[in-house]
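Good morning,

Attaching, inline, the backbone tokens for the sequence recovery test we're adding to the shared suite. The designed sequence is right after.
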């Protein structure tokens, strides 16, 4: 069993920031980075709203931001393991037990920043066509839809932003929304409405995804009239929100009814010595900026908690 002072679970903006701060506080943090360095942000096409990360000539990508954060954290001494946490035991208090696929750790303090994952539609055809036409990430898969027609599901900022991004590749992007009003912010709405490749189908849900080797069509149902129709398409991009990656923490820390970890204003969880930051405890803001701020706070409180014990 490896003994660690601070284990950080997750490598998104909250985790990498907590790593930077705890490293600079000489706590020699270990980051269990998961399979995707940077979490969801690494898959985000464009970052326009993170202060201090700006280029007048082009919009930088999420991956570029993650790269800088990673380098900065490592430069100050953070160590990263590309592994996933499979179980924890916080019930006896500190030192806490953390198990990954490859290793077992004892940690004096833990910062949980495991983030959130995209929600699924839960309709027939969705699961079997993942990777064969169904996607949850425009940045990752948009390229495969060059010259093709795609649909996007959702009416929030993600659906609009990713829909706009997908017009770089697809010939048409049809946004299917279950209401007649978008949830996304006005700036993104304006850009989406002005984009000649984007059209909307309102008050409509997908009932089924059809195809052979790859997706060929979606079966739509109008929620106002109940009418159904088949809409041919090559791809289905789903952006209908997220759920927290907190399953491995069930029974260990207090969560709300959706599985978000409950923290106080000092980023403390219900277990002394276990802190949480980023989207795993924040269903409201979900911004890089807020995750970074929460990561700073969690790291500073971890340092304080450890020093008060000594
Ligand atoms: P969201 O704001 O929760 O929007 C989810 C959308 O999916 C809503 O339009 C919702 O419809 C729809 N939806 C939910 N469940 C559905 C289902 N089962 N079937 C069909 N449609 C369904 O999620 P998000 O767009 O991922 O954004 C999450 C947060 O991140 C927001 O705070 C957002 O502002 C932020 N964000 C910001 C940016 C940016 O600033 N550039 C980019 C991306 C995300 P209803 O509208 O009817 O509820």
């Amino acid at each position: 069993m490896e003994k660690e002072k601070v284990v950080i679970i997750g490598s998104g903006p909250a985790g990498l920031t907590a790593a930077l701060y705890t490293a600079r506080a000489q706590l020699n943090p270990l980051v269990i980075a998961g399979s995707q360095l940077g979490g969801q942000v690494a898959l985000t096409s464009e970052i326009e709203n993170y202060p201090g990360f700006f280029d007048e000539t082009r919009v930088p990508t999420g991956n570029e931001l993650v790269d800088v954060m990673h380098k900065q954290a490592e430069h100050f001494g953070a160590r990263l393991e590309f592994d996933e946490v499979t179980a924890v035991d916080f019930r006896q208090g500190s030192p806490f037990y953390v198990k990954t696929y490859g290793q077992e750790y004892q940690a004096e303090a833990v910062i949980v920043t495991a983030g959130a994952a995209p929600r699924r539609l839960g309709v027939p055809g969705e699961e079997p066509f993942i990777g064969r036409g169904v996607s949850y990430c425009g940045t990752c898969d948009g390229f495969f839809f060059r010259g093709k027609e795609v649909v996007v599901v959702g009416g929030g900022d993600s659906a609009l932003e990713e829909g706009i991004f997908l017009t770089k590749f697809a010939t048409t992007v049809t946004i299917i929304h279950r209401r007649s009003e978008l949830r996304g912010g006005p700036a993104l709405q304006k850009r989406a409405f002005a984009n000649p490749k984007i059209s909307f189908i309102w008050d409509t849900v997908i009932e089924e995804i059809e195809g052979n080797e790859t997706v060929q069509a979606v079966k739509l149902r109008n929620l106002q009239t109940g009418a159904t129709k088949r809409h041919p398409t090559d791809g289905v991009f789903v952006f209908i929100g997220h759920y927290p990656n907190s399953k491995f923490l069930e029974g260990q820390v207090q969560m709300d009814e959706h599985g978000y970890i409950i923290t106080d204003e000092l980023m403390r969880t219900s277990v002394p010595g276990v802190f949480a930051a980023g989207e795993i405890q924040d269903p409201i803001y979900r911004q890089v900026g807020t995750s970074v701020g929460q990561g700073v706070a969690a790291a500073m409180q971890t340092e304080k908690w450890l020093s008060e014990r000594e």
